[in-house]
Amino acid sequence: MTERSASLSEPAAADPHRPGLPLITAVLALICVGSLAAVLLIKLTGGQPWVGLDWIAMLGLPLAFVLMCIGVLQAIARRRRA
Question: If DSSP codes are grouped into helix, strand and coil, which group holds residue 18?
Fold first, then answer.
């Protein structure tokens, strides 16, 4: 196998300069939890939170969960190939 074909067959997660799916998923989940915490704090102080904060949490947390499941399935597939 040549060097070029060997580099093409390596998984994309092996590149240290490219953020992987777990990092992206964790950042998305933290942003969503932060927006949910902001909504709760604003409500506790008697304010009216921006509706977008609710939508960020309602859409982002399930998306983060799905991305986490995809990451687990990719890890299982990678481990079976190795």
Answer: coil
